[in-house]
Amino acid sequence: MGDRAKIDNPLPSIIIWAIALFVTAAFCWILGDLLWHGVGKLSWAFLTTAPQNAGRDGGIGPILVSTCLILGVCMAVSLPLGISTAMLLAEFTNDESWFGRLVRRSLDVLAGVPSIVFGLFGNAFFAVKLGLGFSILSGGLTLACMVLPILIRSTEAGLRAVPADYRLGAAALGLSRTTTLWKLLLPAATPGLIVGLVLGIGRAIAETAALIFTSGYVDRMPESLLDSGRSLSVHIFDLSMNVAGGDSSAYASALVLSVLLLLVNGIATWTAQFWLARRITP
Amino acid sequence: MAIRNPLRKTWFALILQPLLPPHPALSCKEREKEVYFIGEGEKVKFWSFFHLPSPTGEGCRRRGEGTDSKLLKPDFHMKSQARQNSRSSLPALQTEKLSLYYGKKAAFREIAMPIEAGKITAIVGPSGCGKSSFLSCLNRLTDLIPGTKISGSIRLDGLEIANEKIDAIALRRRVGTIFQKPNPFPFSIWKNLAFPLQEHGIKNRDRLDRLIETALQDVGLWNEVKDRLNTSALSLSGGQKQRLCIARALVLQPEVLLFDEPCSALDPISSGVVEDLIASLRGRYTVVIVTHNLAQARRIGDYAALFWVQEEVGRLIEYGTIEQIFTAPQDALTAAYVNGIRG
């Protein structure tokens, strides 16, 4: 055998390492840049007070609240819908059936639709047609439409990845399909669900284009779900594009957004694991 | 009479099911034709509307039987004691002209075979001859595969079970299956056995513990796992997993056990343990075992059946007692197979 490292061509491993380093470096650069420019402005007051002077001064308190509300509406709508649709697709429709194929194909197309189109749709349907106006509710519902395809497809993949042995074993014990699904398959599919959740939240929290048309960009504290509210990403967009001298606030907001994303993902992962996977003993 | 539940098999049941009281321990659904409801109380009507028996088992009795029907009493201990007192109450199976189709392709055709009560019937034959498919027909696990169609007749104690109207879920309570690959659920050892029991309506912790201990002792696993019942079942060895799966089937007190090559995924020592265990079930359960291992079939079987592929379809070539099949086979193919010339 000899020393493999000497015999092998080192080029492939160098390339692979370089690519990995490049990806990591890009991530570190972005995060570092945010920290470098944004951390100076960050304080408890920045997180809690209202923006002043078009966001150049003051904080992002109401904007944080709006963001969380929009995300909350989005998840409250998309999670139950997404999980039940995934169950329907994975457990109650045949791979070959026209219905399953139609739904899956539609979801794949929907997942690729640009967010601006979702924004226009949300504006036309939720804001105008249903009369919700520029509001956190219409923003959240629009985001739910965007997130659903990702959530459904990854939960479905998670359910399909559960070994068929479990289904067969459960059926052989005289357990109904429903019981099997709720108590065995769904907990076992938690990893897929978590992936969908994390991707969905990531997409929702970073969304700008769809929200400008639906939840608006009023930066005061929302009083109800029917109030217009500015999300963090819209705030960052506004500060960096429309407000001269708003850069430092934009950096700080972006930093907060990144931290929020990590935080929400962490909580989502933990919750999913707690609620579903606690039944499962690895 | 039981009214067909309009929600059954629809995905709406998905939402409704958790709202309903838990599925009771025993079902009289499969006796649809023979069961009548005594007492037209609201409770019975409620359950029959949802196509479920009442949780206490009251309200339904088999025609022509006394009050104590082993089918309808949900008490496991009573049931097992009743069985130990009268071994003859084990059911026999009989298939007539049984064929199974996957779409248009037949897996096996026109199989007529008796399965004696309380005995071990071994099914042998080469791969792809429909042995395992035949086995899954016996508790309608074939229903899970889309596009399968059973024709012909399977009678369990005279009850026709190859019938769409028979509730397969209740049937599988009476006819358990153990698969080739051990498939414990990703739960703790305790939960693996408690889960099916709980789903069949037994919630009392003491009772669960008793039943689980009995089942684990039955398969000789109790002393090995009694100190770690809360650890994952997936951490067990292959042979232990398979014995746990057997215990999981036994804990529900079935009457018939179907083994689908239960030893072929195990090492020789575990295989021996599982084989002895199956042999020890003789007389307590009606056992059908599919095996590739002729020596094993000869060691533990009372009866044997040889399946073979003819014109791409599985056929029953010969059925008889073990001695007949191995020492005086009637068919030339059987003789060649048991002597190791073919197959």
Q: Roughly what fraction of the amino acids of chain A lie in strands?
A: under 5%
CATH homolog superfamily of chain A: MetI-like
**Strand order of the biggest β-sheet of chain B:** 8-9-10-5-11-12
Categorize the overall geometry of chain A: globular
Give the rounded overall mean pLDDT of chain B.
78
Taking the sheet with the most strands of chain A, its summary is: 2 strands, antiparallel
Measured between the Cα atoms of the first and last residue of chain A, the distance is 39 Å
State the shape of chain B.
globular
Number of strands of chain B: 12
H and E order of chain A: HHHEEHHHHHHHHHH
What class do helices, strands and sheet pairing of chain B give? alpha/beta
Helix content of chain B: 25-40%
Q: State the distance separating the first and last CA atoms of chain B.
A: 51 Å
CATH architecture of chain A: Orthogonal Bundle
State the assembly state of the protein chains.
heterodimer
H and E string of chain B: HEHEHEEEHEEHEHHHHEHEHEEHH
CATH topology of chain A: MetI-like fold
Which parts of chain A are unreliable, with pLDDT below 50 for 5 consecutive residues or more? none
- Computed over alpha carbons, the radius of gyration of chain A is 23 Å
